[in-house]
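Ticket #4471: structure output looks truncated?

Reporter: J.K.
Steps to reproduce: submitted the chain below (294 residues) through the standard prediction queue, then opened the result file.
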Amino acid sequence: MLQTLKNDELTIKINTAGAEMTNITDAKTGFEYLWQGDPAFWKRHSPVLFPIVGSLWNGEYRFKDKTYKMSQHGFARDKEFTLTHQSDNELQYTLTSDAETKKNYPFDFELRISYKLTNRKIEVSWQVINRSKEKMYFQIGAHPAFNYPHFDAQSKDRGYFKFDTLINPDYILIGEKGCADTQMHYPLILDSDGLMKISNDTFDKDALIIENNQVKQVSLLGIDKKTWLTLSFDAPLVGLWSPPLRPDCPFVCIEPWYGRCDRVDFCGDIKNRDYMNSLEADDIFMANYSIEIA
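Returned output as attached by the reporter:
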């Protein structure tokens, strides 16, 4: 079921399926900023990744000597959330653990996701509450996909990224089985304006993963170098992604993450996975990011 928030600047829509934002539309021009989920490229819009981000080595993890299976990015994006708060400019959705989630994730939890619309800014907030009697381990992340401004399938050029740094950040790539190759780091080469050019082959080796709090803001610019939108976040990682080896793909994802996929060959306990978060019983994790349309 879809709910709508709107003002004089923007209209956004959220689906109770996955608490996923499905539209960001300019109220005056009608331009749709969010990817519309054509399955020929990628069927989603802006899924929430929980309780893991990315892939597990061999699709499984261990906790207290027991092995659990979980598919890429976890299950929250495929669950039905409950609308638990609604006002003129804010919506909140809640997912609670149940017998089905505990087959793959043995913790009792509550996940709350809020969307607040103010002028041309959307603030997305997350709360993770540990309802278990023991320490809980989790990751959470965003995966919004944005239509390229001035997209031309016949052109190699797609636009630019701008980061909140003039120092070239480094990134890692996805290796075997969808997991991170942490042995090799590569520089993101910025031009004299501090911009990274995006081409139709930029993501041929899959996602670019920027770790270690190097970046806290990413803007998407058109081929004219005018800012289109900006994501701001406190997350320690951000992924940049478009389907690999698809030069005709019309969108790009900017993904703030509190966690990432396993490193290649990792077979340890869930608590020892890279970039894991933990909560003691009844504790609350809170985080947010914003999307500002220029």
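Triage note (M.O.): checked the attachment and the full token line is present. Residues 121 and 292 are 4 Å apart (CA to CA).
Status: closed, working as intended.
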